[in-house]
Each structure stands twice: as C-alpha cells, then as structure tokens.
C-alpha cells in the first residue's frame, strides 16, 4: 500500500510534466498507460502482501490455539487423581491431540482419552498410550 501511495503522485507528476512540456498526444498516452500499469502492479503487490500477512496471522493463531489445547489437556489429565499424569505426554497439531506415554492399565488409557475429549478445540485424538509392563 505504501508503494501505491508513492506511485500515484509520481505518476501524476510525470503526466503533468509531459503535458506541460508540449509532448505529443501519443507520448502523453504512453506515459498515462505506463502510470496506469504501475498503479495496477502496485495494487496487485499490495493485495499479495495483504494475503501473505493474513495467512501468517492465521498460522500464528493456530499455533497459539494448539498450545492452549495442549495446556488444557495436560491440566485435566493432571487433575485426575487416578492417573499417573507424569508419564503421559500431550502434543497438539491443528487441533489433533496426540497422547503418548505409559499408564498402569487399559482403563487409564481410556480415561486419558476421555478427559482429553472434554477440552474445547480438540478435533480428534490419537491415543498412543501404552500399558507399562511389569518386570
């Protein structure tokens, strides 16, 4: 947008100078055409920059959302006194929560998954938690 604001006055000055200097109509039209093309190119570049910025802002928002989801899932799992939450790992990517680690029994696997499912923003759960084998 900044380039567009700079290109417009420059284009108008060039056209004015050509007109005042007694240039032919063909030369004036050529200059006007170049100025118009420059303005269109500047508008196009400004739109590309806007789209890029919006895309990056959206990516950043998704990253923040994933971090919030991960924190909330960890919190609900930690709050459950029946689970050994220190052995459960949580990662989130685009709202998909991946659980991994070890628990004492199969019921704990289901409990961790059910708790994770209660968190707002969780789209899906990949549960890779395993039962710890006793030696």
Walkthrough of the structure:
- The chain is α+β, with helices and mostly antiparallel strands.
- It has helices at 2-20, 25-79, 106-117, and strands at residues 88-93, 96-103, 124-131.
- The protein has a 3-stranded mixed β-sheet.
- The radius of gyration is 30 Å and the shape is rod-shaped.
- The N and C termini lie far apart (67 Å).
Task: Give the number of DSSP strands.
Answer: 3
Biggest β-sheet strands, sense, barrel: 3 strands, mixed
Order of helices and strands: HHEEHE
Tell me the strand order in the biggest sheet: 1-2-3
What's the multimeric state? single chain
Taken as a percent bin, the fraction of beta residues is: 15-25%
Helical content class: 55-70%
> Radius of gyration, rounded?
30 Å
Low-confidence stretches: none
Net shape: rod-shaped
Number of helices: 3
Summing up helix and strand content along with how strands pair, one would put the structural category as alpha+beta
In round numbers, the mean pLDDT is 79
How far the N terminus sits from the C terminus, by CA atoms, comes to 67 Å
Give a short overview:
The chain is of the alpha+beta class.
Chain-wise SSE layout:
Layout: H1 2-20, H2 25-79, E1 88-93, E2 96-103, H3 106-117, E3 124-131
Parallel strand pairs: 2-3
Antiparallel strand pairs: 1-2
Question: Notable features of this structure?
Answer:
three-stranded mixed beta sheet; 135 residues; alpha+beta; rod-shaped; 3 helices; 3 strands
């Amino acid at each position: 947008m900044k380039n567009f604001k700079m290109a417009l006055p420059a284009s108008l000055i060039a056209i004015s100078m050509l007109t005042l200097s007694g240039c032919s109509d063909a030369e004036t039209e050529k200059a006007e055409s170049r100025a118009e093309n420059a303005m269109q190119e500047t508008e196009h570049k400004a739109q590309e920059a806007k789209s890029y910025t919006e895309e990056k802002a959206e990516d950043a928002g998704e990253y923040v959302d994933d971090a919030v989801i991960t924190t909330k899932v960890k919190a609900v799992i930690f709050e459950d006194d029946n689970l050994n939450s220190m052995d459960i790992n949580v990662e989130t990517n685009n709202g998909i929560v991946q659980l991994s680690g070890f628990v004492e029994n199969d019921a704990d696997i289901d409990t961790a998954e059910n708790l994770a499912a209660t968190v707002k923003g969780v789209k899906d759960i990949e549960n890779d938690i395993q039962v710890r084998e006793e030696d």
